TrEMBL record:
Pathway(s) annotated for this protein in UniProt: Protein modification; protein ubiquitination
Protein known as: F-box only protein 25
Signal peptide limits: none
Function recorded in the entry: Substrate-recognition component of the SCF (SKP1-CUL1-F-box protein)-type E3 ubiquitin ligase complex. May play a role in accumulation of expanded polyglutamine (polyQ) protein huntingtin (HTT).
Gene3D superfamilies assigned: 1.20.1280.50
InterPro entries attached to this UniProt entry: F-box-like_dom_sf, FBX25/32
Protein encoded by which gene: FBXO25
Compartments where located: Nucleus
Keywords: Nucleus, Ubl conjugation pathway
ATP-binding found in the keyword field: no
Amino acid sequence: MPFLGQDWRSPGWSWIKTEDGWKRCEPWTEGLEGENNRCGASHGIILNSEDEEIFNNEEHEYASKKRKKDHFRNDRNTQCFYREKWIYVHKESTRERHGYCTLGEAFNRLDFFSAVQDARRFTYVARLLQLIAKSQLTSLSGVAQKNYFNVLDKIVQKVLDDHQNPRLIKDLLQDLSSTLCILIRGVGKSVLVGNINIWVCRLETILNWQQQLQNLQMTEQVDSGLTLSDLPVHMLSNILYRFSDGWDIVTLGQVTPTLSALSEDRRLWKKLCQYHFGEKQFCRHLILSEKGHIEWKLMYFALQKHYPTKEQYGDTLHFCRHCSILFWKDRRLALLLEDSGHPCTAADPDSCFTPVSPQHFIDLFKF
C-alpha cells in the first residue's frame, strides 16, 4: 500500500503487510533494476528492511508498470501495449470522465498491429492510414506517431513478402510523402510534433519504401496443378464480376488474351458503374461512342475522378451505440464464448453495433 510523503511530488514509500505487521520496502537500486530488465522478469524483487527477497506483484505493481513503460519507450519497433482492445469515445468532460478522447489515443489503444496480419482487416487499416496521412497527421501525439510508422512499416514489409495489394500501399505512401513535404516546409509554424530531423529521416524511409515497391517484381510460381487460364470462360467471367475496383479488372485483363477480351465486356463495366454511382451522376458525365452507345468503361474512370466510390472491407471496427465504445469484433470469440469484444451492458448487444468506415473513424474524433 503506497503512502504519500511530505513532498507531494514524491511517489511516497511502499509498504507490505507481513505476519509481524506492516514493513516499509526500500527503494530499488540501479543494479537490481538493470538485472531485472536484462532477464525480462515480469515480477518485482523488493528488499524489505530485513533484506529478504519478496515476490509480490500486487503490492509493487507501480514498479512493474514503470519498467514496462521504460521498455516500450526505448523499443522503437514496439507498439505501446494495452490489455483492452477497445476504447471509450467521449467528446466532453463529465464528473465520471475528465478530458477528451483523441484520435492519437484511439490509434494507440486499438490493436492495429494484429489487424495488419488479418487479411479481412488489412485493406481497412491501410485505408485508415491513408486518410490520416492526408489530413490528420498533425493531430497525432508523439507515441501515436511512433505507432503509426511502426504499423506502416509492418504493412510495407508484408506487401514486399507476399506481393499482395502493392497498388494500395503505393497510393498510401504517395499521399504520405506529399503531406510530409508540405508540413516539413512549414516546420517554423510548429505544425509537427517532434524534432525536424526525425521527420526528415521518416521521409527518407518513405522514399526508400517507394523505391522498393517500384522495383517489386511478381515471380511466377511453378505448379503442376491448374492455373487461372485453365478455368472455363464462364468461371473467369464470374471472377471478374466479383471485382469492385476497375483498376483490378484492367490489371487482370493483362494476364491472358481471354481475360483481356472478358475485361472489355460492356455489361461488366455497366454493373460496376451502377454499383458505385447514381443515375444523376451518369447524366452529368455521359460519354457516347460514335455509334451512339454508352462507353461504360470510360464513364467509370471519369466518374471516379469526381465522386468517391463505395468501399468494401472484409472486417471493420465497430461502434457500440449503447456504451459509446469503439472496438474490434472478434468473430471467433463471439461464436465460442459469446464475447462481443467489449464490456457491453445492453440486453441485446448485437443490435447496438454499427460498422465504422475509415472516414467515420476519423469523424468520431472531430470536435
